[in-house]
Design a protein that fits this description.
Largest sheet: 6 strands, antiparallel, barrel
Shape: elongated
Mean pLDDT: 82
Number of helices: 3
Strand content: 35-45%
Radius of gyration: 24 Å
Structural class: mainly beta
Number of strands: 12
Oligomer: single chain
Low-confidence stretches: 183-192
Strand order of the largest sheet: 1-2-5-4-3-6
Length: 192
């Protein structure tokens, strides 16, 4: 099975290094020196990692055969793809590969069907499940333990406890005003 593990960013310096947007929780395993990665577009690869280092919080890679900035720039926006055994599991107990989560049925804790996971969106702050509803619409479910309470790979389902408004139209609006519109300010007792 092939998994996208990174996207190449812009060139860094003049010796062929590139910045990389990491898309794996195991960069030391997937993006280490000597790793041979397929690419999308396929015409850019395969690429073999020659060196890797962290600079100012960003991973920089240099590939065999790429020795200057011009060569590095031609790789910009290329996806790096690793071959992974489909039976391989992440090291952490509550960690999952995207392919394990795609197509899981999503249900509420009450057992109400919500839809099916069609995509995992990896954002800087959190991951989101893109869930296709039975009517064809999509809903985005943050992949955080407060909302996704259980992943059951044997039953092929994800159980969620959504806050109001996440999967329905019953959003609660917080307000500092009472229903009668007088607000919640304390009375002073002055008759000024």
């Amino acid at each position: 099975m092939q998994l996208v593990v990174a996207r190449i960013g812009r060139a860094h310096g003049i010796k062929g290094e590139v910045t990389v947007e990491v898309r794996t929780d195991e960069p030391e395993l997937r993006l280490g020196p000597g790793a041979v990665l397929a690419t999308d577009p396929a015409s850019a690869g395969p690429l073999t990692i020659a060196t890797g280092r962290v600079h100012s919080g960003r991973l920089l890679l240099r590939f065999e055969g790429v020795h200057d900035r011009t060569g590095a720039e031609t790789l910009r926006n290329t996806l790096l793809i690793a071959d992974v055994d489909p039976e391989e599991l992440p090291e952490g107990e509550d960690e999952y590969y995207d392919h394990q989560l795609i197509d899981l049925d999503v249900v509420t804790e009450d057992g109400e069907p919500v839809g099916r996971i069609t995509e995992i969106s990896h954002l800087p702050t959190q991951d989101l499940f893109v869930v296709e509803r039975p009517d064809g619409t999509e809903v985005f479910v943050p992949f955080v333990e407060e909302i996704v309470t259980e992943i059951d790979l044997e039953e092929q389902r994800a159980v969620i406890d959504p806050p109001p408004g996440l999967i329905d139209d019953r959003a609660e609006v917080a307000s500092s005003r009472d229903a009668d519109g007088t607000g919640d300010a304390a009375e002073t007792g002055d008759d000024a």
